[in-house]
Amino acid sequence: MLGLICIDVDGTLVGTGNIIREDVWAALQTARAQGVRLALCSGRPAFGNARAYAERIDGDGWHIFQNGASIVNVSSGHSLSEPFPSESLPGLLARAQQEDRLLEVYTDLDFAITKPGDYAERHARLLGVPYHPKALSDLSGDVVRVQWVVAREQEAAVTAAPYEGLSLHPAGSPVMPDAMFISVTRAGVGKGSAVAQVARAYGVPLDRVMMVGDGENDVTAMREVGHPVAMGNADAPARQAARHFVGHVDDGGLREAVELALTL
Fold it and tell me: Which of 3, 44, 212, 215 is the most buried (most CB within 10 A)?
């Protein structure tokens, strides 16, 4: 069996209606009991629902949040995160104000927003945190990432602008199907770089690691590991990067992936 399974959240662990199937939880518990390390590999931050998921699947382990910008051990609280380039932040904040768009600014354990409203409130609900809009001046900790939350039809306009020294990680969620989440990290930081760090921390060779995902932001991690798995609901870039294929998230595709990992 493999030594490490990395698991995307939205569209992989979590399906329509923000639901995780009980057979998926059972499969993950079985894998952990047999000694396989499990790591969330999500665009979500290390608090709210994602923190609870991480603690449930591998409570003393390393987990990847914020598209690789935040790597946190949920037991010890230790972090392997790198700070967001401070010189890039003012321009992004100015653009958010000029274009009247929602930009979220994250540390490992906190976040602020530029535009309160429907998207911000719905995203807080998705994350599993109270909707209490916080200004950047009240943010605690080092900034590790920012994220645009925009309508799907606005994605092209947002990503077309230059992002010198930065990397973009667009993703969707079945919980907010009308929105796109466009993470912005330091250049070279992504799920792939973070998976490599977690594998090193556990002493697991990358050819014995599985990454299960469904979105474009999962591709860097899928290309890094020996066993990339695409969900049945995966978009084209994720499917092209995959070696194995399983069912739709709502049909228990992640359970199939975990069962496969125990036979490899």
Answer: 212
